[in-house]
Specification:
39% helix, 10 helices, Alpha/beta knot, elongated, alpha/beta
């Protein structure tokens, strides 16, 4: 199953920090985490002692096309084994743990991870259990803590949401990320002479109908009116549409064209109809 934004003809971004999920219990959370990773170009998923039969139909369905991340996920019996090859590790938590570690937000963490990867380091982010998060001994294994600026009265994030926020922060770090598409201009901007002609027509019609009152305010009212249209940066098509609209308001609806029935010319060889006409 893939979403509307999936395009397999385009090159996929891969790499990034290892995402390490400690004892995840719900296949749906693992699947949605994989989807979040794929959205933002991360591809290395590590699972520490996941629930038995974690890879199932629900997992794959919630991954929404990111099945390759699930299929390539590495399984480890302990956190220590999962992080053994890493040079730097962040631990995620919503609670202050009193360990004296540096605490940063996702933007700072994303930039730091990207810089370390550029230096050739292997890095990762550690996420805890759905209900209880990470335990203190597990946080002790990390170099620093990353937490999210959330409502202090409701700071608990869904596991896959936390993975998504961290993945997004990594991809956008340094302002290097680009949007998947941009605004496309279908018509060129209207020429100034055409715009002025439109203003002349519009203001002449408004003048006839007593819009510019009192007379001493005509110049100010005209300037305000023109500035409204200038602010929208009219294209040629915009101007044609607006002019046509005002013409119809002034002149009323078009009169329907009646089609005249054209009878074929009579021929000397024509056969009379049954009523005697030909």
């Amino acid at each position: 199953m893939s979403g509307a934004g999936t395009d397999h003809t385009r090159e996929s971004i891969t790499g990034g920090p290892a995402i390490i999920l400690v004892e995840p219990q719900l296949g749906e959370n693992i699947g949605m985490s994989a989807r979040a990773m794929a959205n933002f170009g991360l591809s290395e998923l590590r699972l520490v002692n996941p629930r038995e039969n974690w890879l199932n139909q629900k997992t794959e369905a919630t991954a929404a096309g990111a099945v390759s991340i699930l299929q390539n996920a590495q399984i480890f019996p302990t956190v220590e084994a999962a992080i053994a090859d890493l040079n730097f590790l962040y631990a995620t938590t919503a609670r202050e743990r009193g360990q004296g570690k540096e605490v940063v937000g996702p933007d700072h963490a994303g930039a730091n991870l990207k810089a370390r990867i550029a230096q050739g380091q292997k890095v990762g982010v550690l996420f805890g259990r759905e209900r209880t998060g990470l335990e203190n001994p597990e946080i002790t294994l990390a170099d620093a803590i990353v937490t999210f600026p959330v409502n202090p009265a409701y700071a608990s994030l869904n596991l896959s949401q936390a993975v998504l926020l961290m993945s997004y922060s990594f991809m956008t770090a340094g302002g290097a990320a680009t949007l998947p598409f941009e605004r496309k201009t279908r018509w060129p901007p209207a020429e100034r002479g055409t715009v002025l002609s439109f203003f002349d027509y519009l203001e002449s019609q408004l003048e006839e109908r007593g819009f510019f009152r009192p007379p001493q305010k005509r110049e100010l009212m005209s300037r305000n009116l023109r500035n409204i249209f200038h602010r929208i940066e009219m294209s040629e098509q915009d101007l044609r549409t607006l002019r046509g609209m005002f013409v119809r308001l002034v002149e009323g609806p078009r009169q329907p064209q009646t089609k005249k029935r054209i009878r074929p010319p009579k021929s000397a060889n024509s056969v009379p109809d049954q009523d005697g006409s030909s």
